[in-house]
User: Which sequence fits this backbone?
């Protein structure tokens, strides 16, 4: 087995999720020596969206990395999906997806409270800003004699801390995807480091 001091010839940023007020963001925790290699198979990091290119990040096993964190390498965002401890237990191999579209997102929605006279009253929730990974599911196009519409469904992968409701509106700020989307379905997955949401919007073309 190759010596760690020889193997770890690259660096990755280890990111941790931080919350300030109603905003979550990935912040750099530290730089770590690592070895990064491209996997032969794609990483199926989303249960309902498309897969991404996979990499294996080998790092020293110092007990500080877990699946609640993320990484940045060569300007690319890496979402970890598994951690394997080496036989000698001096290193870990982190399986990660290389995510192309990582965008700040803002969610708004409404909740119902009891107002005057115990009557239900609809009130707007405080907007929540958070980082989201956007991947595809499907897109369709339909046309008739007077109207054409483009309907898109995207899958938004978020940190586990982000809890959205069906009907919430999510603004994605990434330029190529910039729009307001509606949460159609929730996939609140147990035992993993993420939640997934199916988003949809329709626009005239």
Assistant:
């Amino acid at each position: 087995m190759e010596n760690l001091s020889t193997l770890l010839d690259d660096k990755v940023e280890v990111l941790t999720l931080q919350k300030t007020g109603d905003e979550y963001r990935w912040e750099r925790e530290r730089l770590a020596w690592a070895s990064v290699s491209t996997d032969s198979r794609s990483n199926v990091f989303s249960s309902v969206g498309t897969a991404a290119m996979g990499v294996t990040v080998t790092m020293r096993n110092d007990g500080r990395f877990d699946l609640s964190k993320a990484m940045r390498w060569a300007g690319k965002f890496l979402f970890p999906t598994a951690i394997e401890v080496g036989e000698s237990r001096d290193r870990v191999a982190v399986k990660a997806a290389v995510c192309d579209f990582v965008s700040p997102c803002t969610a708004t929605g409404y909740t119902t409270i009891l107002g005057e006279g115990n009557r239900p009253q609809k009130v707007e929730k405080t907007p929540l800003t958070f980082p989201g990974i956007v991947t595809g599911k499907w897109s369709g196009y339909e046309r008739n004699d007077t109207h054409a519409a483009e309907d898109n469904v995207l899958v938004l992968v978020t940190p586990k801390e982000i809890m959205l409701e069906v009907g919430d509106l999510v603004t994605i700020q990434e330029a190529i995807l910039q729009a307001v989307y509606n949460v159609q379905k929730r996939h609140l997955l147990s035992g993993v480091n993420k939640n997934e949401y199916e988003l949809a919007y329709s626009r005239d073309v």
Notes: Residues 62 and 180 are 42 Å apart (CA to CA). The chain has a mean pLDDT of 88. DSSP finds one helix and 14 strands in the chain.
